[in-house]
């Protein structure tokens, strides 16, 4: 395991004395502090508890405790702002992102459909044949003679 091979037993005992739990040893050693000496001597950071008034306000507004915590600690919002700012509407946000991702305007796709060109044919003409999108939408399909 990472702990036993990287940190000696003596170092782990010292870490536990400074207040690290077993789960926090790797974080204290490798990611947060960096140096072994610092990991042994610097005690873990104590987090300031949240004001329960704002936590209850957040929960009454439909915001979970985890979202509240993330907003305050990660995004730097004030407790009041984190508790009162409404959650984003996921369907609305998905529609916005879908419109932003669209590569070809709806008018071209409708024109292609009106001319009897399937979406896959339209895309293939642009990507594989390197046609101009307008040409790909307006050039009729070739009829195969029987």
Give keywords.
146 residues, mainly alpha, 3 domains, 11 helices, 61% helix, elongated, disordered N terminus
Oligomer: single chain
**Global structural class:** mainly alpha
Average pLDDT score? 80
Give the SSE string.
HHHHHHHHHHH
Bin the helical content. 55-70%
Largest sheet geometry: none
Per DSSP E runs of 2 or more residues, the count of β-strands stands at 0
Global morphology: elongated
Q: How many structural domains can be distinguished in the coordinates?
A: 3
The number of helical segments is: 11
Distance between the termini: 71 Å
- Rg computed from alpha carbons, rounded to a whole number of angstroms: 29 Å
Topology readout:
Layout (H helix, E strand, L loop, with lengths): L1 H5 L2 H9 L6 H9 L3 H6 L10 H9 L4 H9 L5 H6 L5 H12 L4 H9 L4 H9 L5 H6 L8
